């Protein structure tokens, strides 16, 4: 599967990548986006199977990316890895079509719980 | 203080729990290099990052440390030797540390708060000031012999 990691922090993209490997998902094709607009364009152009997105990013927030994708009929599997976690954000993410919500700081065990059903 | 009913402002213990989670997850996963609380440290830091929180609560969360500590954190985050860490890596790492702690702080605040993108200051001896704010939480410690501070500041604002 192709997985798009969208985060404006290079170190956090690196940590997400490493944690995916530690959780046993290192064999997938990983691609990266450094802001929300780039994430949106990469989904449209590269058709990843899964998007793991930060919430608070320049250009477009993660939830804005998801809302735009859904508005165009794109059903890519999409979820958030974010330091912010409030009930209203989780409701907004769910309403937009997000499949998971992982809070930073996270562990490989947490990635395993969330991604095993998705990535197998 | 927010007017939200039932709201209890985060304290040093809450902040410490958040910071400990960052250390356990990213900076000290095997428990060999913990952040040790010293209660006192330098007045000024060479490397700082902050996020601002606005909305129903106004303030700032600041992560500050020495350059060697920032370099060690970036090297740990990126899994590279400290000597390969660039200035961009330092800024990115510090910003992400402030962002993670700030995001976790937000979850304890009344609904309707927003966290800014991080601001990073790499300047020896620089002193960041926000006029009209008061420090509400303050953790000062050492990590691998280097000073680290995490603090939370509240802006007193009418209306």
Automatic annotation (TrEMBL), chain A:
Keywords: Phosphoprotein
Database matches in Gene3D superfamilies: 3.40.50.2300
Keyword DNA repair carried by entry: no
Phosphoprotein listed as a keyword: yes
Pfam families from the UniProt entry: Response_reg
Domain Response regulatory: 2-119
Post-translational modification 4-aspartylphosphate, affected residues: 54
UniProt name for this protein: Chemotaxis response regulator CheY
Species for this entry: Pilimelia columellifera subsp. columellifera
Organism phylogeny: Bacteria, Bacillati, Actinomycetota, Actinomycetes, Micromonosporales
Automatic annotation (TrEMBL), chain B:
Organism: Pilimelia columellifera subsp. columellifera
InterPro entries per UniProt: CheC-like_sf, CheX-like_dom
Keywords: Chemotaxis
Signal peptide: none
Presence of keyword Cell wall biogenesis/degradation: no
UniProt keyword Chaperone, yes or no: no
Gene3D superfamilies documented for this protein: CheC-like
Name listed for the protein in its UniProt record: Chemotaxis phosphatase CheX-like domain-containing protein
A Pfam family it matches: CheX
Coiled-coil segments on the chain, per record: none
Record-annotated Chemotaxis phosphatase CheX-like domain positions: 49-125
SUPFAM superfamilies tied to this protein: CheC-like (SSF103039)
